Structures are given as C-alpha cells and as structure tokens.
Amino acid sequence: MIDNDIIFQPLKFRNLVVKNRIFRSNLSGRFDNYDGSGTQVRLNWEERFARGGVGAILTSFVPIDIRGRILPYYATLDRDERIPFWRQVGDVVHRYDCKLILQLSHSGRQREVGGIENLDKSALSSVSRIDSTDKFPCETMTTDQIRETVHQFADGACRAKKAGLDGVELHASSGYLFTQFLSSALNDRQDQYGGSLENRTRFLLEVLRAIRKRVGDEFHVQVKISAIDQANAVYFWKKKGNTLEESIQVCRWIEEAGADAVHISTGSSFPHPLNPPGSFPVADGIRASGQKKPSAATRTSWKTLETHFQMLQPVFRYFWNHARPKQIEGINVPAAHEIKKHIKIPVICTGGFQTASYIRQVLRDGACDAVSIGRSLIANYDLVKIIEAGIDRPLKPCTYCNKCLANALESPLGCYEVSRYDGDHDRMVREIMSVFQPPAFSQPGSREGSGFDRRMIISRSSN
To answer: How many CA atoms within 13 Å lie on the side-chain side of 362?
Structure first.
C-alpha cells in the first residue's frame, strides 16, 4: 500500500529528491543561545521530526543579520563561524534520509523581541512607518542598505551550501521584510522598490538572482510567500494588500528568477487569524501553562496593543474570531491550486494538515505537490509513521488551540493542550521537556529510543 500511496512517492525537484510528500513546516522554540550560536536542544528538536518520518524539514527563521533577527535564542547564519553547527544539524537529520532546507529570514520592522544589540538601532523596512502592533522604531531602507541586505542573503545561502544542507527557503511571507516590500498595504515607497507590483517584487528577485549567481543552479532554492495578504482581516479599515492574482504574477517572476519551488501560506503578519488559524489563545494558553495572567513576554508574543489591556481583549477577540475560517485543515489549498496552474515548479502548501485521506486527495487533485505541517507535528511528531501504519488520523489530533504559540516566548515549544494528556499536567510537562534529552554533554552513543516500532505507533495512536 505504501508503494502506491501518493503521500510516500518521492518528490523530485530540479536537483533535489525528497522521499515523501510531507514536510515539517517552519517552527522551532527559543532553543539556542542568545548570541545566535546553536545548542544540543536544537539538534534534539530537529532529529525528533526527522526520526518521525517527514521527507524534509524546513527550519524556522534563520537570521542573515542580527539587526534583522525576529527573536533572540534562535540560531543564526550571519557569519562563517555558524557553519559547523548547521553542518551538524544537517548530519543529524540526514541519518533518517530526511532533507534539511534552511529558511533565510530578515525581520524588517516586524520584530518579536528587539534584543540588546538593537536597542539603539531602528529596524530596517521598506517604509519608516511604525508597525501598529510591534511598535519598534523603523527606518526606510536606502538603496545602499537594500544592496547590502541582498549580499547578506546571498552570503547566508552560500554558508548553508558549505554546511552541506539541502537548500534554502526565502521567508517572503507572514509580514517580515520581503512582505514589507511585496505588499501594497505596507509598501508606500516612491522609488524603484515601491509603487507597481514589479517594483515591489524587485527586492525579492534581486535576492533570488544574487543567490543563484553565488551558489549555482544545482543548489535548491525555494520561496515561501503569502498568497493573499488579507491585511484587513482584523482591522477592517486597513488596506487589503496583495491579491491572489498579484501573487500568481509574483510566483511567475520567482520561477523565472531561478526558484525551484514555492511554499504557499497566507496573511501579511504573524500571528494572523488565518496564520496560524485557530483559537486566539492568550487567556487559554496562560491557564494551560499554570500562569494566572499574561506576563510581559507573553503579551509581546501576541504583540497587539489590545492584549495589553484586558478591557479591550473582548473587542479584539471578536474581530479575530470573526476573521477565523470555519475549516482549518487545508486552508491554503484553493490558493495553492490556483498558483500551481500558472507555474511549472513544485508547489508546497501549508495549513493545518493531519488527515491522511485529505492529504491524499489534495495531492491527487493536483492542488500542490507536497504539504508542510507545523502544529499537527508538534501534537504528534510521529504523524508520518502513524499514516504509514495505515491510520487515517491520530486519535488525539491537534486541536488548533494555538496554546503552543501563546507559550512559545517563555516556555519550550510543545503541545500545551492538557486534554491531549488526559488532563495530566505533569505528563504534559514531561513530554514538552523531553526535547532537552539527551543533554548537551551526554556521551556519544547514549541515545535511547531512536527507533520506531509499528505496534508502539498503533498503541500510541489508540491511547
């Protein structure tokens, strides 16, 4: 059955073959050191999903420059000294015939936490208009700064190649720097990087071409893009931003510039009611972690001014929930399908996937070539093994509560829906903390439980 299952058919890119059609989407916790150096915990984290059977892992945002990092405690690739660590991450993932594609990023004005290095530096952006949710001072990038950033992205791609990784992904979605140039709702520049869609896409295409010039045609390069901005999803009085039709044209240009694939998401910010879709979890998430009220870091994690003032939360929650979709699984499938009609390179689609029969249907219908999964793999990191065992959907699937996101700034990333642990809070904590094993100074060869047993999988799914 596996041989005939489209989920487990290899996906062939121009110069890369992935063993199946399920990718681990871009997620990680604050598992690394403050200075951007990596840790054993990151190795444990990525190995968990590679061991679980995904065909490829797409890392979470990896800054190409400290000034453009979204959060501290995330490993960077802003200097050559970082190459050995990422080579080690790649080696760990490759043990399981899994590919590692590193996501190159720049926050622009959308920082979660500025960091001490950036206290006296405004964020770089397409505009100097402060983001109404982040509130970090920002400045309009000059052409010289744009040119320097293009070189930094190309340098990052070269380092990823030297580290022996399988490719890179440009993070042109979710409101970060590329989106700040691409989106008509955000970019009001009057020069060659603003105005028309062609001008707004110029920065992204310059980065793509620079990377291709530096790494050659054989290294895999893909782009994650928000198919529809929906910048007014919560605030109805704001501009809508880019439409699907505009993103189709952008994807055509991306293909012409040498990209090997596009990765489809949605929304012009993060978090966004449609990215990740689900509950607005500030209050629920705090209760799940045992806190009585949101701390400063947790309020920052949801960024919006409304979450700082309890009396305004019901208003914001109303608008947030009003914009939420009724069906979460496959939320981006229609947009991905439409984009796929207009380009020849493979299309990867993200959006709440966790049901095998539905994933098969999406792939067979030609809506996309692969799916990427985030929260559902946090809930069941061996989801691919579960599907391989013939189970259509885990007995305890992801509930899309977003408590993992609500707790991510202060606590290790993991599933905080205690009902999935039969109400056992201690069991939940043990599972979340398991990413710290083995510890940094464990002896080589001391790992346990690295294999999977079919009976264990079926039993786990039936508990």
So the answer is: 32
Say how many residues make up the chain.
463
Pairwise CA distance, residues 66 & 118, whole Å: 8
All structural domains of the chain, each given as residue ranges with its CATH number in brackets, are 6-462 (3.20.20.70)
Backbone phi and psi for residue 273, each to the nearest 5 degrees, phi listed first: -55, -25
Kindly provide the b/e burial profile for residues 161-199, where b requires at least 16 CB atoms within 10 angstroms of the residue's own CB: bebebbbbbbbbbbbbbbbbbbbbbbbebeeebbeebeb
- How confident is the model over 321-345, as a mean pLDDT? 89
**In the numeric block, which tokens belong to residue 272?**
């966004």
The per-residue DSSP string of 86-124 comes to HHHHHHHHHTTT-EEEEEEE--TT--S---GGGTTSPEE
Q: Is the pLDDT of residue 461 over 50?
A: no
3-state secondary structure of 304: coil
Predicted local confidence at residue 133, as pLDDT: 60
Helix (H, G, I), strand (E, B) or coil at 315: helix
Helix (H) or strand (E) holding 218: none
pLDDT digits (tens, 9 = 90+) for 412-453: 999 999 999 999 999 999 999 999 999 986 555 545 444 444
- In this structure, what DSSP letter does residue 295 have? -
Structure tokens at 117: 């290095």
Hunting for tokens 């190409």 — which residue is that? 64
Angle, helices 244-256/333-340, rounded to nearest 10 degrees: 50
Integer Cα distance of 123 and 69 in angstroms: 10
Please, what sign has the CA dihedral across residues 414, 17, 174, 320? negative
d(CA 13, CA 158): 20
Residue with tokens 């744009």: 146
Calpha distance 437→86 (Å, rounded)? 19
3-state DSSP: the chain helix, strand, coil percent, rounded to 5? 40, 10, 50
- Dig out the tokens for 274 from the structure: 């449609």
Peptide bond into 276 cis (omega under 30): yes
Whole-model pTM: value is: 0.89
C-alpha–C-alpha distance, residues 301 and 298, integer Å: 5
314 pLDDT more than 60 = yes
